[in-house]
From TrEMBL:
Protein name: CoA transferase
Transmembrane segments: none
Bias kind Polar residues: ranges: 375-384
Record organism: Streptomyces ipomoeae
Coiled coil: none
């Protein structure tokens, strides 16, 4: 699928992404969404994640070339890209990029102004730095996983949004943009060490302040914002669906209990000893109507009540539809780029980059004819498919076995 030049606030910025899984690709996608020209360097054979590359939207707004970093010419080809880039992103275990010949020192020798972004779970230093891991282990160590769930039950994994993407990708992007600002002003690049444990811990800054002040108990579902409060949580409705309540402030709480039909229980807001009974009352009321019926009751109010929607329902909500929070591109419904910009608009310009599909274009646009030679030597066509049994621009064969989910921090 053809890709148009970036036209967001990062238009003109060149990014090299050494292919991986999870937070690194998502960070590179964010930069691509913002208009950067992102070239993903895929390895022969794929990234090792059992996801059809045709549907991996974290590779949208990118272009792909295939380079075997373990081949004699591979590192030099990547360094040719680095020489012309502003940013590099990699997510290997500490020391792997160096062993492959594309570590920070080598890259900065070719391009002193390069921002070298490193995405790991444990960080570049520390006792656990060389160990493998995934999101759930990283957030477990920071104390944030232990905050999520109900008393007497195991902590609940919040998908991989809290660690990989909030504590990982977003912090890497913030660091890369800050370092890029510095590089533009001074000409000096630097290494950005983005560790999921650091970012996730940083997300809990307010909670640590409340803990120090005695306003937070270090146990699950015992606090104002973790489900311990009866007017900040979720409730089941008559149809087995759920609504979310966040009526924290007095004026919102008053409207909430009024519309819920329990106005006589309003004083219990300040009486924590009565919160258990209040919760039972609220739960019983919500069980009398369906989710959509309660949504209609609270429509247009400031009671801070919302329906809990599924992933498939969310794009059709009137507010999200009006804002264009989701978009359809290439037959895939997906979140639109965020945030919004008044002058430098962003958009989905291209679908998921297929491995090697853009080699010819990148070789021309970046002035690296060696990319074509490297692709030829690896028996990979410039369109990204092996001459034997080409499958729809990088899509796996229907009978291909799932690949091992083992790339991150395992090289």
């Amino acid at each position: 699928m053809a890709k148009t030049p970036g036209h967001g606030p990062l238009a003109g910025v060149r990014v090299v992404e050494l292919a991986g899984i999870g937070p690194g690709p998502f960070a590179a996608m964010l930069l691509g969404d913002l208009g950067a020209d992102v070239v993903r360097v895929d390895r022969p054979g794929g990234a090792g994640l059992a996801v059809n590359p045709l549907y991996d939207v974290t590779n949208r707004n990118k272009r792909s070339v295939i380079v075997d970093l373990k081949s004699p010419k591979g590192p030099d080809t990547v360094l040719d890209l680095v020489e012309r880039a502003d940013v590099l992103i990699e997510g290997y275990r500490p020391g792997v990029a160096e062993r492959l010949g594309v570590g920070p020192e080598t890259c900065h020798a070719r391009n002193p102004g390069l921002v070298y972004g490193r995405m790991t779970g444990w960080g570049q230093q520390g006792p656990l730095a060389p160990r493998a891991g995934h999101d759930i282990a990283y957030i477990a160590l920071t104390g944030t996983l232990g905050m999520i769930g109900t008393p007497g039950t195991p902590p609940m994994a919040p998908a991989n949004l809290l660690g990989d993407y909030a504590g990982g990708s977003l912090y890497l992007v913030v660091g890369v943009l800050a370092a890029l600002h510095h590089a533009r002003a001074t000409g000096a690049g630097q290494v950005v060490d983005a560790a999921i444990v650091d970012g996730t811990a940083h997300l809990s800054a307010m909670i640590h302040g409340m803990l120090a002040a005695g306003g937070w108990q270090d146990r699950r579902a015992a606090n104002l914002l973790d489900g311990g409060c009866p007017f900040y949580g979720t409730y089941e409705t008559a149809d087995g669906q759920y609504v979310a309540v966040g009526a924290l402030e007095q004026q919102f709480y008053d409207e909430f209990v009024d519309l819920l039909g329990i106005k006589g229980r309003a004083p219990a807001r300040k009486d924590t000893a009565a919160w258990g009974e209040l919760r039972e009352t609220v739960a019983a009321r919500f069980k009398t109507r369906t989710r959509d019926e309660w949504t209609a009751v609270f429509e247009g109010s400031d009671a801070c009540v919302a329906p809990v929607l599924s992933l498939c329902e969310a794009p059709h909500h009137p507010h999200l539809a009006a804002r264009g929070t989701f978009t359809d591109f290439g037959g895939i419904t997906q979140p639109a780029p965020a945030p919004r910009f008044s002058a430098t608009h962003t958009s989905v310009r291209g679908g998921p980059a297929q491995p090697g599909a853009d080699t010819t274009d990148v070789a021309h646009d970046w002035g690296i004819p060696g990319l074509l030679e490297d692709a030829s030597s690896q028996d990979v066509s410039p369109e990204g498919t092996s001459p034997e049994g080409a499958h729809a621009k990088g899509a796996p064969a229907k009978d291909a076995p799932p690949k091992d989910f083992s790339l991150r921090h395992t090289d």
